[in-house]
Amino acid sequence: MIQLHDKKFEPFISAEEINTQLKRLGEEVAADMQGEVPVFVGVLNGAFMVVSDFVKHYTAPCEVSFVKVASYEGMGTTGEVKQLIGLNQNLEGRSVGIIEDIVDTGNTVEELVKMFSQAGVKQLKLATLFFKPEAYKKDILLNYIGFEIPNKFIVGYGLDYDGLGRNLPEVYQLHQ
Questions:
Q1: In this predicted structure, what is the pLDDT of residue 111?
Q2: CA–CA dist 143, 173 (Å, integer)
Q3: For residue 110, how many C-alpha atoms fall within 13 Å in the half-sphere facing its CB?
Q4: Segment (H or E) for 44
Q5: In whole numbers, what is the pLDDT of the chain averaged over residues?
Q6: Active-site residue 160, yes or no?
Q7: Backbone phi, then psi, for 20, in 5-degree steps?
Q8: DSSP E strand stretches across 90-138
Q9: Alpha helices, DSSP H only, in 33-141?
Q10: d(C-alpha 110, C-alpha 124), whole Å
């Protein structure tokens, strides 16, 4: 059990389980992207650890970039996605893989798909380490999913609670 601010969290997914899923995702994406040099775009702040470890398992040439968007305050979504740092490279005609730490409502994914569709990419693939199907409200296909998890609040491995917990190598869920 750990405490972050005023909340207690209990162990949920180990670092070993995370690494196993990222290895699988890296292999699946590499098989699908044969002949391409994709640009993997991580969504900050949460996906920094996911992207770092994912590309270690991606065995073919690739490029890495980041965007920063925000839709959360505290433990809940605001429902509004704000682009804080945009992409600064030309992606026209390129294969792009968006790497998310977590997809719940799908609001961020929807905004990212709009943003990258306007950039004229050749193909756009969506990958997320954690997916909450109970919370998902969009019809956008997620091409690669690491874990399907219940609609519970989690921290660790890049995910935070009001700024704390991102540095944890494993994932914790809110203690009930």
A1: 87
A2: 25
A3: 13
A4: strand 39-44
A5: 91
A6: no
A7: -60, -45
A8: 95-103, 123-131
A9: 48-57, 107-117
A10: 12
Q: Which pTM value belongs to this model?
A: 0.91
For residue 73, the model assigns a pLDDT of 53
Spatial CA neighbour of 97 closest among 48, 26, 19: 26
- Helical spans, DSSP H, in the chain: 15-32, 48-57, 107-117
**Catalytic entry in 6, 32, 53, 104:** 104
pLDDT for residue 56 is more than 70: yes
Q: How would residue 83 be classed by pLDDT, with cut points 50, 70 and 90?
A: low
| Rg value, the chain, Cα | 16
CA distance 29 to 114: 22
- If you count them, how many residues does the chain have? 176
Mean pLDDT calculated for residue range 44-65: 95
Please name the amino acid found at residue 64: V
Check: CB of residue 76 under 8 Å from CB of residue 131: no
Contact 163, 74 (CB under 8 A): no
Q: Is the dihedral of CA 117, 56, 100, 66 positive or negative?
A: negative
